Amino acid sequence: MSPCELEEYINENLLDRVGMNFFNSGISGTMTGLGILGTFLGLSMGLGSFRGEDIYTISDNVGPLLSGMKVAFHTSVYGILFSLVFNFVYRSIMSDAYEKLEIFLNTFRQTAQPPAVTEDENSAAMVVYQAGMANTLRQILELMKGDGVEQTAAVERMVENFGRQLQASMGADFQKLGSTLRAAGEAQTAQAANTEEMIEAVKTLVEVNRNVQSALAKVMERQERFAGELKAQKEQLSRTCSEMSDEISGQLYAFEQMRNLYEK
Fold it and tell me: What is the spatial distance between Cα 123 and Cα 130, in angstroms, rounded to a whole number?
């Protein structure tokens, strides 16, 4: 009987609860959403007190408008910045925890775990481990894909609403600013497209890994069939040798009886 692997005693659900994975996974999106909400609140504050009856009124209202725009941009930048910082810190902490766990497992294998019994069991364990890693990688990529698409859509909506409000209030004076923000949205879209290409490449790698696993499974199946055939041939040869031995013993006995008869 093969020894039980140490990884089977690790409770991954308990690790997720201790690391508050469900709670922490939503904090970055909440920070981004608060930043976008603050953006529209700042724009509403600036445009709420804006009056454009004549040039003197417009000049008097430029200060509150710019103050609201400052609040809008600051909240958007802080929200996205805090989201990125939180993601980086959280993923660094989790990566360090799993790295320490991997170091412990490696140390345990080198010092306390008994050696593997057969090569076939090692191959089967490797196939299961690769399948688990592929599923984990696919889940992480799907999470990254969802976050990138949501942030891109939010930035595009913010750019469109901001451009319409400025066009209605100030006309052509802020068209250049709207074009700049639109270019930023297009750059974000291009970044999302690059992320899509990377995801497709990783999916291709996962498919290749799946094909390798299938090939290994087929090789193991052929080896098992070959071992069964060898065992059957061995049993057949053993039976044949036993029958030949019995036949030779019978012939020797008959020859001995005949010789004794002739001697008499």
Answer: 11
Domain assignment of residue 250, yes or no: no
**Tens-place pLDDT, residues 83-94:** 888 888 888 887
- For residue 257, CA distances in Å to 58, 245, 249, 251 come to 136, 18, 12, 10
The one-character DSSP state at 54 is S
**Helix pair angle (119-170, 55-111), 10° resolution:** 170
Helices assigned H by DSSP within the chain: 12-18, 21-24, 27-48, 55-111, 119-170, 175-263
In this structure, the answer to whether residues 57 and 148 fall within a common structural domain is: no
Q: How many domains are contained in the chain?
A: 2
Cα–Cα distance for residue pair 137/130, rounded to 1 Å: 10
User: What confidence tens digit (pLDDT) does each residue in 110-129 have?
Assistant: 777 555 555 566 666 676 76
pTM value is: 0.34
For tokens 């408008």, the residue is 65
Which tokens in the block code for residue 133? 């890693």
- The answer to whether residues 136 and 172 belong to one domain is yes
The Cα–Cα gap between 157 and 150 comes to 11
